[in-house]
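Entry for the shared binder. Reason: the reviewer on the internal report wants the predicted structure included alongside the sequence.
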Amino acid sequence: MSIGPRVRKRRKAQRLSQEQLASQAGLTWSAIQRLEAGQVTDPHYSTLSSIAHVLGTTVAELVGEEPAVGKVSAPPDTGKAKLATEGLMSRPDVASWLAEGAHLDRETFLSKAEEYKDEDDIALMVVELRETRDHFIDALRRSETQYALFGRPRVEGLTGDDRIREVFRPVKMARRLANEIRREYSAREVGLVNYSKVLFIEGTADDYFVYEHERDSEYGRERHERILEAREAAARELERTYAEALV
């Protein structure tokens, strides 16, 4: 299933019209229409991020790249993940600003995540992730934040395109940082959701985290059946190992 049908399926599960989704995501109706019709096959990350936020899901799930169930871990070293870790977020001045806003470095985040042992803890951390992400995104829209992080435009002696580029430089840098933050926090959320499934499959937790829009959806029911099968298989394997140890 491509991106368009996934967006349409989740939109309908939320009982939203294309116009409502577009309005809440800050997009045009035609953008949603063209995406769902398959006329746009490689949408901008910011577009998918806005849609995913409205639909209560992640960009990874919209594009069909949900990682296999496993322990919470850092995102794979793909080009996008590498940009998130080696781009603007790693600059000392930006890192300091992020830390002041309650951003955790990746190692601290992973350590904190593995302290949680049930779906309620995971759900709380997902909410905290989104609130922290939105705090940074909102701040980066303000000129005072842009100037503090990237300096005011210096247009003395500049003319034409050079002057225009310098005027918009802080805005452009802020948008780039905002996209890095979205990617990082999306990866962290996906990791948390999958970690919740691992706890359930291993028998450590009695339930696992599920997005509200998936609870009664066909997609959610199908995935729940697969997770139950994995939990039962893990229990059988544990029993077999225990029996062999007694021999």
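Summary line for the report: The radius of gyration is 21 Å.
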